[in-house]
Structure formats: structure tokens, C-alpha cells
Amino acid sequence: MIIDFGLExxxxxxxxxxxxxxKHFNGLKYWMNLTGKKAESMYLIYSGNADLKRNNFNxxxxxxxxxxxxxxxxxxxxxxxxxTSGSLS
Length: 89
What we know:
Elements: E1 2-4, E2 9-14, H1 26-35, E3 42-46, E4 52-54, E5 57-61, H2 69-78
Parallel strand pairs: 2-3, 3-5
Antiparallel strand pairs: 1-2, 4-5
């Protein structure tokens, strides 16, 4: 998935595995090679709990997706509001 904020684009790969494998980064590496983007603007979301960096890629546990940087970027860029609660907070 590519998240496009105009001048900034972020590659996002979502995996259901709790174990991170090197092959999970293949799509992000492909996008990085096509665009010249750096690994720091790429996110691998997996079903584990820990947030970490791996080979400069951002690895985010599923439970933390809306608790960190991604939530801030989505709220700022999209000004998204939930139909039930009014916001993503």
C-alpha cells in the first residue's frame, strides 16, 4: 500500500505473521528501488507487539498502529473522523 500525502509518500506492507521475516520487506524494497525513497519512509505492520527498526525500515506491531506516528500522520493528512466517536483519539 502506498500512502500519499502530496509531496510525501510512504510505503506500507501489512503482514499477518507475528514473526518478521526478511521476505516481508520485498515489496517495500521494490517500491524503494522504483522511487528512490529511503527505508525510513517505509512501514512494515505485523501482528506482533514490538515496534522496532530493521534494516532502517519501520516495523510496527498491529496493536500500536494507531498509537504512534501513523495515527498522527493520518489525522493530520486526512482529518479523519470516526462516524461513531467523532475522532480517532
